[in-house]
Amino acid sequence: MAQKLLQALIGDLGVKLDDSRLQELTGFNLVNPNFYPACPNPDLTVGVGSHSDAGILTVLLQDGIGGLYVKQGDQNALPGNEVWVEIPPINGALVINVGDSLQILSNGRYKSAEHRVRTTDVESRVSVPRFIAPLPTTRIGPFPELVARDGVARYKEVIYGEYLKNYFEKSLDGKKSLDFASI
Fold first, then answer.
1. What distance in Å separates the CA atoms of residue 58 and residue 112, rounded to the nearest whole number?
2. pLDDT digits (tens, 9 = 90+) for 147-182
3. Which of 35, 2, 30, 11 has the alpha carbon at shortest distance from 125?
């Protein structure tokens, strides 16, 4: 499913991927179940701070509790002026997040989703994300077809494993991990 979705997204940009490149870009998969206990005062705690995901796509199964928020609008809004929209859980639905790697590959045409998780005072929350990412040795940079069309590369080519190392060395801080690949 993730490969077909990626092919559709990349195809809409006018880029064609061969099977080996598609496998490189989606060859690392990780499922990371999360448990967020209920908190009597959820305003005093954070489930997961503001961040974007490093990979290509994240496929998320939420329970019925809620607590996932996506930053809306101006990605450079000053702290405290951001607008966060809750993504309500829909029974049987999957949430698909674009990751930093797809933002880099698309030369910024697709934007990675800055999001956070809040605990609730109602009951504990469980979510199960599947992270689809490039193999660690894969070079990621804007597709040449898009650079030619845009007239500029907004990101440099990086090795995904190095990008990931930088990502985890920084604390979760919005989308600042993209600075590593920005030109």
1. 10
2. 999 999 999 999 999 999 999 887 677 888 999 999
3. 35
The two structure tokens encoding residue 137: 């040795």
Give the N- to C-terminal CA distance of the chain in Å, as an integer.
32
Strands 94-98 and 115-117, by their bridges, are unpaired
Q: How many CB atoms lie within 10 A of CB 81?
A: 9
C-alpha closest to that of 108 among 66, 138, 84, 141: 141
Which amino acid would we find at residue 107? N
* 54: nearest Cα among 137, 177, 162, 157: 177
Q: Which helix (H) or strand (E) holds 158?
A: strand 158-159
Distance between CA 94 and CA 58 in Å, rounded? Answer: 10
